[in-house]
Amino acid sequence: MSRNLDMTALRAFATVAEAGGVTRAAGLLHLTQSAVSMQLKRLEEALGRQLLERAGRGVVLTADGEKLLGYARRILALNDEVWSRFTDAAFEGEVVLGVPHDVVYPALPPVLRRFHAEYPRMKVTLVSSYTERLKMMFGRGEADVILTTEDEVQAGGRTLTTVPLIWVGAIGGTTWRTRPLRLAFERRNIFRAGVEAALDEAGVPWEMAVTSEMSRAIEASVSADLAVHAVPEGTIPPVMERIDHAGALPEIGATRINLYVADTLRGQAERALVRLLLEAYSD
């Protein structure tokens, strides 16, 4: 009597093995952790072998698991090839891209436009948030590719470019001349602490005039000339302009724009999105 492998369980096993844990694999598969754990249990029971062992917060493959992983990759690749060939679903799927709100423009719209033109059946779910949250999502497997703004780059990432930070205010505004200098920043804005430190070191008195969780509220406040803000050069919102302060305000350093790509991202379309991001920032 022939027996058939459960393809769903096999995909769950391969994803857990490649992601290094159930939590991240669940995010990549868009399933709950309990559903993934159940599929792993079903596969082990069907084969009568232990495939994974717990190791801290992650998992490691047993000897049988190592053997199965090679087969699983080939079986899943062939399954996906057949499915694409006979259902006309080539390059169909979803990729979750996380980007800090302050670097969405100007690079990202052309990237998304080109990607859609090349792979019209691929869905891109864009998450715009602050770097801390994006890295948490990436760690849990809830995002496939993320851009971050950071002082350094962590293991597994690469720096695409380093961009100076600049002062911005309302178009034709004068608030930057007032003292104490009135600032507007999101609570979790990664540049906020550095801006405050630079002002303190330069002896410029300041006050946090506007604080919000929402970037729109900051843009509205700055564009109304109620406060000033800081952004990476080249990413000025259309309702603001660079402040020509002639040295009245201190230099506020630079930020790295880093790229992190999930180890499990191997499809041709997904790799094309990464390539477009690399090209955008190399330009």
Features:
283 residues, alpha/beta, 3 domains, Arc Repressor Mutant, subunit A, 9 helices, two-stranded antiparallel sheet, D-Maltodextrin-Binding Protein, domain 2, 41% helix
Written description of the protein model:
- This protein is 41% helix and 25% strand.
- The strands form three sheets. Strands 3, 4, 5, 6, 9, 10 and 11 form a seven-stranded mixed β-sheet that branches.
- Helix 1 crosses helix 3 (33-47), helix 1 crosses helix 4 (63-87) and helix 5 runs antiparallel to helix 9 (268-282).
- It has three domains: 7-87, Arc Repressor Mutant, subunit A, CATH 1.10.10.10; 93-150 and 257-282, 3-Layer(aba) Sandwich (D-Maltodextrin-Binding Protein, domain 2), CATH 3.40.190.10; 163-255, Periplasmic binding protein-like II (D-Maltodextrin-Binding Protein, domain 2).
- The model has no long low-confidence stretch (mean pLDDT 90).
- It is α/β, with parallel strands linked by helices.
- It has nine helices and eleven strands.
CATH architecture of the largest domain: 3-Layer(aba) Sandwich
Query: How many β-strand runs?
Result: 11
How far do the termini sit from each other? 60 Å
The named CATH superfamily of the largest domain? Periplasmic binding protein-like II
- Element order, helices and strands? HHHEEHEHEHEEEHEHEEEH
Briefly characterize the structure.
By secondary structure, this protein is α/β, with parallel strands linked by helices.
